[in-house]
Every structure is written in C-alpha cells, then in structure tokens.
C-alpha cells in the first residue's frame, strides 16, 4: 500500500525487521555490544538455545509493537522494563541459557539434564481438567 506521497505506508502489520535473526543482528547485537566481563556470557550461535530463542523472539515482537505504537517515553520504557531485564537473563553466566558458551570459544552444548528438559512428574488425574 502506498501513502499520499507515493511512499510505502506503514501499517500495524508491517515489520521493520523481517525476522528474529535480522532483529538480533542489526538491532540487539550493536545495542548490547558491551565490554566482556565474567558477569556476562553470549553465544554467537544463540539460535541453538531454546531458552534464548523464545526470549529473543518475545523481545523482537514487543519491540515491533512498541515501534508502531510509540508515544513519548514508550521506547525508553521498553528498554528499561523489557529489554534490559530480558538481556540480563540471557547474559547471566550462572543461570542463563548460554551457560558453558563463550564469545571466544563459541557454542557448548551443556545441559543439566540428559534429555535436555526439566524433570516433571505427571499431575494427579483430574487436577487440570480441560476448560469448559
């Protein structure tokens, strides 16, 4: 769709970044290019970590929503309340999804459980009946 000036009209459905990879590479990577410390870890193969992908996907979509509906202070609020806390979880070297990885060494597949998931016992029958 074009606007009155012949340019592309931006709609609520149009994305600035076409996918999560573009968002990470073009926006987050430059924004969070901070000095290396022992208190921060990143994996250059972030897409191999389910816990990272779900968080980065949420960051991307929430950024796109913020961008379209931006009012004064909205982007600052997104950074302060969404991006920085989410990135703190991702960067956490002791409990984040990149445990064992290194910017220098790269990806390490270190999972605490052999099947790559938290152990779960089934709940008692009837505890979680389907909603009516």
Please tell me about this protein's structure:
The protein contains three helices and no strands. With 132 residues, it is mainly alpha-helical. It has a domain at 39-107. The longest helix is centred in the middle third of the chain and has 19 residues, at 50-68. The protein is globular. The model has no long low-confidence stretch (mean pLDDT 83).
DSSP strand tally: 0
Unreliable spans are none
How do the helices and strands follow one another from N- to C-terminus? HHH
Distance between the termini: 42 Å
Note the overall shape. Answer: globular
Question: Helical stretch count?
Answer: 3
Radius of gyration: 19 Å
* Overall pLDDT score: 83
Biggest sheet details: none
* β-sheet strand percentage: under 5%
Q: Structural class, from helix and strand content?
A: mainly alpha
| Percentage of residues in helical conformation | 25-40%
